[in-house]
Design a protein that fits this description.
InterPro entries: Peptidase_U32 (IPR001539), Peptidase_U32_C (IPR032525), RNA/ubiquinone_mod_enzymes (IPR051454). The protein is an alpha/beta fold and 419 residues long. The protein is 24% helix and 21% strand. The strands form four sheets. It has an eight-stranded parallel beta barrel with strand order 1-2-3-4-5-6-7-11, surrounded by five helices. A six-stranded antiparallel sheet has the order 16-15-20-13-14-19, with no helix packed on it. The longest helix has 20 residues. It is globular.
């Protein structure tokens, strides 16, 4: 039976606060996510998670990240969501006990065996069910709740109408969904393609992302003769989906019973994390401050486009994706901005900047902070780390000084305006 989502006649304000959950690929990204408005972050250790190549946390950085988050009233969730083989279970009990001693707020799992070990080893630990577990109906939600799951991250293949029905049938458990970021070509991320093409098991944390590779079509009787699928001379990305973006639909998400909004992107940059979190934070705050008179602002979506993303789609929320939700050619640039630096200090008419990408004298820039937008400026002088005037900041992450009389928040972002 197909269920049509029509929304409600009046948006009702949540009884409980909403949670904006951000990715953290390393300690720096964790701090930026929190500074720019995330209520919680999710991350992985060196083992047992599905992003083994995402710059995962050492135990020391994990402890530092938890301390940083907790000192600001935020939460940290750890991914333990691989589909383990027997050998993958070695050392898991000790790892879980260490997570508990560090003070993490919850762990994210997908495998029933790991769930059993969690309940036996760290029974007080809050447990969230990964989207990898493919929860797509209310009976499944009830099953997992009965096993002691505190929150269910629903499968991405659900429509808003289906989510609303699941919430109506099982309203006494938290539901989390992805609202922004890359979409996997395979069902809830369960994929064998990486295994076949790169001998790296996506279900054990080693995905090589072959769905983003470029491909050609070759007929069996014409070996070596590559037939174009589109007119792009570089091949085609026949399995590369557009990025999910639901910032236009905050009220509908809330009406469907979703209280935890998750951003994908542990392998993305500091700039991506900060920009996306900031935009969704503004939209969510605007809704919560006055739900009856809430209206979407186009500037929020325009900010998201500055984060070097693919074109946007609403995924499965309003029906199954079709051919328009795929990106078949080289991904077009959505933004005329380049992230070039981070403000370390603002004092006496000078900005101390850590360079992240090339910028030079004459460039136009814009500066944004966690809470403010500072406007556009022109770089007229650069003083390098040796105290000498320079045409540009020549080395990656070099700290330079630029005369600009603007009182910026620490960790403000600097973008170069292109064109």
């Amino acid at each position: 039976m197909t269920i049509e989502y029509k929304g409600k006649s009046k948006v009702e304000q949540n009884q409980n606060p909403l949670e904006l959950l951000a990715p953290a690929g390393n300690l720096e990204k964790l701090k930026f996510a929190i500074d720019y408005g995330a209520d919680a972050v999710y991350l992985g250790g060196k083992s047992y998670g599905l992003r083994a190549f995402a710059g995962n946390f050492s135990r020391e950085d994990m402890r530092a990240g938890v301390d940083y988050a907790h000192s600001r009233g935020r939460k940290v969730y750890i991914t333990v969501n691989i589909f383990p083989h027997n050998e993958d279970l070695e050392g898991l009990e000790e790892y879980l006990k260490e997570l508990q001693s560090i003070g993490v707020d919850a762990i994210i799992i997908s495998d029933p065996g790991i769930l059993r070990i969690c309940k036996e080893t760290v029974p007080e630990m809050e447990i969230h069910l990964s989207t990898q577990a493919n929860c797509t109906n209310w009976r499944s939600a009830k099953f997992w709740k009965d096993q002691g799951i505190n929150r269910i991250i629903l499968a991405r293949e659900l429509s808003l109408a289906e989510i609303e029905q699941i919430h109506r049938m099982e309203s006494n458990i938290e539901f989390e969904t992805f609202v922004h970021g890359a979409m996997c070509i395979s069902y809830s991320g369960r994929c064998l393609l990486s295994n076949y093409l790169a001998n790296r098991d996506a279900n054990r944390g080693e995905c090589a992302h072959p769905c983003r590779w470029q491909y050609y079509l070759m007929e069996r009787e014409r070996p070596g003769e590559y037939l174009p699928i589109t007119e792009d001379q570089e091949g085609t990305k026949i399995m590369s989906s557009k990025d999910l973006c639901m910032i236009r639909h905050i009220p509908e998400l809330i009406d469907a019973g979703i209280k935890n909004f998750k951003i994908e992107g542990r392998m993305k940059s500091v700039h991506y994390v900060a920009t996306v979190v900031r935009a969704y934070r503004k939209a969510i705050n605007a809704y919560l401050s006055d739900p009856d008179n809430y209206s979407f602002k186009r500037e929020w979506e325009e900010e998201l486009k500055k984060a070097s993303t693919r074109p946007f789609s609403t995924g499965f929320y309003f029906g199954s994706p079709d051919e328009t939700d795929q990106e078949y050619t080289k991904e077009p640039r959505q933004s005329n901005r380049d992230f070039v630096g981070i403000v370390l200090n603002s004092q006496d008419g000078y900005l101390t900047i850590q360079q992240r990408n090339h910028f030079q004298i004459g460039d136009r820039i814009e500066i944004i902070g966690p809470n403010k937008t500072y406007g556009e400026f022109v770089i007229n002088e650069i003083i390098n780390s040796e105290g000498k005037k320079s045409q540009a900041a020549p080395h990656p992450k070099e700290v330079v000084t630029v005369p600009l009389n603007v009182d910026c928040e620490p960790n403000s972002l600097i973008r170069k305006i292109l064109g």
